[in-house]
Design brief:
The chain has 102 residues and is an alpha+beta fold. It has 5 helices and 3 strands; from the N terminus they run E-E-H-E-H-H-H-H. The protein folds into 2 domains: 70 residues, 3-Layer(aba) Sandwich (GIY-YIG endonuclease), CATH 3.40.1440; 32 residues, no CATH class. The mean pLDDT is 91. This is GIY-YIG nuclease family protein.
């Protein structure tokens, strides 16, 4: 069975990069070595792996990656820190419905 990884990197400019791969070690090496001059991380080295998730289905990994890419910086940080209350607090649905009685 193949494993897919969704990961978050912290870049030198304090931004986060979210990606997906089937070989996390190889992909981290590629990011750190500056393999692609057109990549987001190339001008933001050094980078640090802050979080990853293993998935057994590539479709799930792609879905998680797309979802996390749309999150704010503070919501990604809450995920990395496993701060579940802030993760909920920083979600759009929670913010829009925090005063509802549902």
């Amino acid at each position: 069975m193949r494993i897919y990884y969704v990961y978050i990197l912290l870049c030198s400019d304090n931004s986060y990069y979210t990606g997906m791969t089937n070989n996390l070690e190889r992909r981290l090496f590629e990011h750190k070595s500056g393999k692609s001059k057109d990549s987001y991380t190339f001008s933001r080295l050094p980078i640090e792996l802050k979080w990853y998730l293993e998935c057994s289905d590539s479709r799930d990994a792609i879905q998680y990656e797309k979802k996390i890419k749309g999150w704010s910086h503070r919501k990604k940080k809450a995920l990395i820190d496993e701060n579940w209350s802030d993760l909920v607090k920083f979600s759009k649905n929670y913010s829009e419905n925090k005063d509802s009685k549902i």
